Amino acid sequence: MKKFKALCPLINFQIPWGMLISPIERTREERTQIFKERREKAVRGIEIIDGVKVKYISKEDLEDLKREPYFSLMFPPVMRGLISPRTFVLERTITAKERHTFEADGVMQNIILALRLLKGGHVFGNVVFYIRLSEKRGLVSLSHHQYLHPQVSSGWGTYSLDFEEIPDLKKLVKKIQEIDFSKRKGLRLACKRFQRTYEEVDVEDQLIDLMIAFEALFLEGEKRASQRGGTIAVACSVLLGKNEGEREEIRNSLAKAYLIRNSIVHGAEYKKEPDIHEFVAQIEEYLRRSIKKLLD
To answer: pTM for this one?
Structure first.
């Protein structure tokens, strides 16, 4: 048996271990101690599930990646600077035969999904690298999951996972890991289309995928086209709305989103929202909250 390390760089991601320690609630000595403990955790790693840790990339691992041609193929020049000593990774040590089965892919991609469901923000983990630790150390393989477009390097704020959010992330990952998606095809398709929006630059394409995800979640059997938008709007409003005011807002937003989606796919003109990006972001948030509720 030999040892391998699975490594998934998290692009556009940080854990702000040096921030969010209130000076009002803590003494200076307490803040210093918390600061030290969090930094140590960021270096040593915080286990999320099944031996997968989130941590800063080690100097040795970074050197292993950057000396291999695989790295240049997966990360063009405009994006290579995104992998640095300050990059967080998902890491898992594997003990297996030489021809191992790379079983870390699934759980790592589920963690990426959980991060995206936890809250909004553009976090990416599109490549899992496998490094041999036994005998001659070095990169032996990789698996590629998503397209990473260049806009990630500029224009989007960094996804920040606060230490206080880590317990909620662990719960969310556990739920996802326990789901048999082969028996919940609607949920599987909704998650797939939700994930796909992170690969798209065009806001209209994002809206199309969001509405396909809503259809997968809320439509049972065949519905006439004229009924789909209303059914989705009502179902989502009942699921998420805490009062009639919230439910009405959700219904109106989703009904409008479905009309815009229909216009886009049929090549028709539609009334532009004052800020279409903000509108689509709100629709995305409704989907995010819906998926999380239906994971239970």
So the answer is: 0.90
